[in-house]
Amino acid sequence: MAENQLGGQQVLVLPEGAQRLLGRDAQVTNIRVGIAVANAVKTTLGPKGMDKMLVSDLGDIVITNDGATILDEMNVEHPVAKIMVDIAKTQDKEVGDGTTSVVIMAGELLKGAGDLLEQGIHPTTIIRGYKMAAQEAGEILEKSSQTVKIDDDKTLHKIAMVSLGSKNVGGEDTKSMIADLVIRAVKQVMDKDASGKIVIDHDFIKVEKKAGGSVNDTQFINGVLVDKEIAHSGMPKSAANAKIALLDVALEIEKTETDARIEITSPEQMQAFLQQEDRILKDMVEKIKKSGATVIVTQKGIDDMAQHYLAKNGIIAIRRVKKSDMEKLARATGAKIITSLDDLNTKDLGFAGLVEERKISGEQMVFVEKCRDPKSVTIFGRGGTQQVVDELDRSITDVIGAVSSAVETGRFVVGGGSIEIELSAGLKSYASNVGGREQLAIQKFADALEAIPKTLAESAGMDPIDTLVQLRSKHKTKEGASYGVDIIKNTVGDMNKQGVYEPMKVKLQAISSASEAAEIILRIDDMISSRGKRGGGGGMPGGMPGGEME
Ligand code: ADP
Ligand code: MG
């Protein structure tokens, strides 16, 4: 590879000390950075992958296997590294799983591009070839996929177990229990849009966590767990068949914004003033009582006096609840969020079979549960230490992503590297039909896909080259199409028989994001540091736009 130098140009227009990398130098450097980022997460891939421990300057420790989290915590500076981190984040956001795979793929695509650049192939030819390959791979993927129906719990369970496979959150039984909880949650919040398409909004599966107990204590809550305590000690600690009012109203006397002062000249006046305040608060509580509410939840504050009156009336109140939790409560209980007490009506109240404050590891939390067909639910993760519950949280989020991707598109593929070999083989024959110089890029794309089974084999302690050779030959036969890396027996095996299933959507997203990232990085042929203008934004132009760079 060429030396990473400035190429000796005299660049007079740039301020003193500014860095500039041009043409090949820029590309070579960027490719190296991309590969380095991919290498950083590579060893975590698959059930036999390792965990990473990340330690911050302040000594905070994160132990994880999650690609997106590792990259996020790595605190990278180089803009190309940031692009790599971004694709993991996009993958996380769009499908919730497959973050390590997408970064490995992107790194391999860059490596392939590096080889081609060295052979004198122009970047635009490589980009064109990669685009064609991604398109074709998507089509082969669809053809190789199988159907999963919403009521097919057995298949959904397998998909969930594969997603959990690489996570260090307990044994098979524990994972199976988590898989069941997630499937239940996904089905509960599932909706259909106007065209009848299944949509799952991940925001309405709340993953709450609290260190303490064990992972096996993780539970499904048919409603919302609110990390708050009941406002006043005189209020009941629980209410069965609760009628819930959701308020975006402060139960307080409005303080005037200006410096207006109230002139009080006599004790009688003082008395009258206090009485008036008291009456306003009492009125508020009266309105709540009249609506029939037995529980109120507000985003705002509640005056001590109002709390006292609510307690006297046996009404439970929770205050200063996050807006996002209010929305979840609305979907779970069927309540409407009210912005003025005058509008509070019995029909705006929601329902929960039980609202109860419980002490969890020394802290009070309010369970709003046993809701009727709630469109928002909670998975409450427990575990011995903060690190355990944090990783459990990330794992649950991955599984939610995997199960809902499978349910939304209704398609899954066989994993364990088998689908990647299938795609790779398909692309190789496609390449020879395409011809031209693009075929070289398509071949590199095919090679890049093989990095997934290769890495799985490596982390299982198998010989990666032998494994690839065996898999390629298996996939030449029809029966061999679902062969992948058997990480238990350390050999190649039928992944279909083992039920190593993954959502098609996760693979589709990984392929398109990885190739897009490689394309963006390859298009850059001029890197100029712009520290002066942007003011301390790092040595190189910060945040390359994700779109056209030509
Ligand atoms: P990602 O962040 O990309 O999801 P993971 O660490 O979750 O990374 O690893 C996913 C890879 O591991 C996929 O290619 C998947 O097919 C593979 N995998 C998961 N479970 C198994 C298994 N039991 N046998 C073989 N491969 C598996
Ligand atoms: Mg995964």
Report mean pLDDT, rounded to a whole number.
90
Outline type: elongated
- Taken as a percent bin, the fraction of beta residues is 15-25%
The helix fraction, in percent, is 40-55%
- Give the N-to-C terminal Cα separation: 24 Å
CATH architecture of the largest domain: Orthogonal Bundle
CATH class categorisation of the largest domain: Mainly Alpha
Calculate Rg over CA atoms: 29 Å
Give the full name of the CATH homologous superfamily of the largest domain: GroEL-like equatorial domain
Helical segment count? 17
What's the CATH topology label of the largest domain? GROEL, domain 1
How many β-strand stretches? 21
Structural class: alpha+beta
Molecular structure report:
- This protein is an alpha+beta fold and 550 residues long.
- It has 17 helices and 21 strands.
- It folds into 3 domains: 245 residues, GROEL, domain 1; 104 residues, GROEL, domain 2 (2-Layer Sandwich), CATH 3.30.260; 150 residues, GroEL (3-Layer(bba) Sandwich).
- Strands 9, 10, 11, 12, 13, 14 and 15 form a 7-stranded mixed beta sheet that branches. The chain has a 3-stranded antiparallel beta sheet with strand order 4-17-20. Strands 7-16-8 form a 3-stranded mixed beta sheet.
- The longest helix is centred in the middle third of the chain and has 25 residues.
- The radius of gyration is 29 Å and the shape is elongated.
- The N terminus and C terminus are likely disordered.
